[in-house]
Amino acid sequence: EVQLVESGGGLVQPGGSLRLSCAASGFTFSSYWMSWVRQAPGKGLEWVANIKQDGSEKYYVDSVKGRFTISRDNAKNSLYLQMNSLRAEDTALYYCAREYFWAREYWGQGTLVTVSS
Amino acid sequence: QSALTQPASVSGSPGQSITISCTGTSSDVGGYNYVSWYQQHPGKAPKLMIYEVSNRPSGVSNRFSGSKSGNTASLTISGLQAEDEADYYCSSYTSSSTPWVFGGGTKLTVL
């Protein structure tokens, strides 16, 4: 059974940093592109970033470029999102997702990031 | 404002069919067959319902179907059931600087 479990969310002050993790199991992690998608409270979905199987390609939504870094450790079956210079508008539930044929096939339950003073 | 435009809400009675539209441009929906649809129940993670415009993942009911015409993609749900009441989001690849975009979401109410 495919499982994606996010962790690392919490309350952080504006300008602060957080590192999100996503532990994957039930599939060959190194064979799939992986994504982060976020959802602000009461709002819609926003794609944040994705990363190729070997980490050689990474893409970001414009609003996080230069502040967020996506990475992965295939030996640990883990996906990460390093978030720096956090802003109030980054407050959201962050989901990791496994990609499949240009779509997000499996999703975790999300980890909540709140940016507030 | 979302890059893809969806109606804020649609409704239908049990047994009826409804269609949710997702309008983009030639740089996204119209230019690529990489449109996907997601269902999200309150407090739950999204679930993939359609990928590559019209393909259903294993386990998704054949009451759900997808199509595309020009710059508009559509999700049709036939034989509406109470459990279909949820938010639905479309997504597309785009040639812009942000490669993936979602629609603003559509709330489906089963009357």
TrEMBL record, chain B:
SMART domains xrefs: IG (SM00409), IGv (SM00406)
Protein name per Swiss-Prot or TrEMBL: IGL c1910_light_IGLV2-14_IGLJ3
Top-level taxon: Eukaryota
Domain Ig-like: 1-90
Primary residence: membrane
Protein localization: Cell membrane; Secreted
Subunit structure and binding partners: Immunoglobulins are composed of two identical heavy chains and two identical light chains; disulfide-linked.
Organism: Homo sapiens (Human)
High-level lineage: Eukaryota, Metazoa, Chordata, Craniata, Vertebrata
UniProt keyword Disulfide bond present: yes
Pfam families documented for this protein: V-set
InterPro entries in alphabetical order: Ig-like_dom, Ig-like_dom_sf, Ig-like_fold, Ig_sub, Ig_V-set, IgV_Light_Chain
Biological process per Gene Ontology, one example term: adaptive immune response
